[in-house]
Amino acid sequence: MPMSIFPKPVSPRSALGDFWTYFSEKRAHKWPLLGLAMAITWVIVWVFILDGKTNTGPRQNKIMYVQSWDANRPDAVIIAKQKADLARGEMLLAKKQKEMQKVADMVGIEWREEAARNHAKREEALKAINAMLDKRLEKAEAAEAAAATGPTSKKVARP
User: Fold this and answer.
1) How far is the C-alpha of 157 from the C-alpha of 159, rounded, in Å?
2) Largest separation between any pair of C-alpha atoms in the chain
3) How many CB atoms lie within 10 A of CB 3?
């Protein structure tokens, strides 16, 4: 006995009959609900169509430049570069914060109290980091100076 797709009490003919009976009755909410169902269905289909076109093209090759350094560069140079990078990062962060603060002013978000509190914490942390880097820089410069003026190794003649 072949298995039918629909369960026993349902057939395509009875389903179409129920559909026709529902739409032949006079109900006030019939057409708005039909319109809403069609709109939701169209939105879902439209989103799938848009999503199908997203990130499907081949990616362009992106060139990445990597900075290379001398393997024998002294610690003092490395620490000085860290200090410069920290200052540059803070400058970029301040610039970005100014942009975001303009947006917050346009939207009406109050940011000044929290920004003042965070600025104080940030300044304290930066002072601690810069003090630590200064100590390391002094140690590195002292070690380099000691190595430059220190005794040179003498070659021992072997018999």
Assistant:
1) 7
2) 119
3) 4
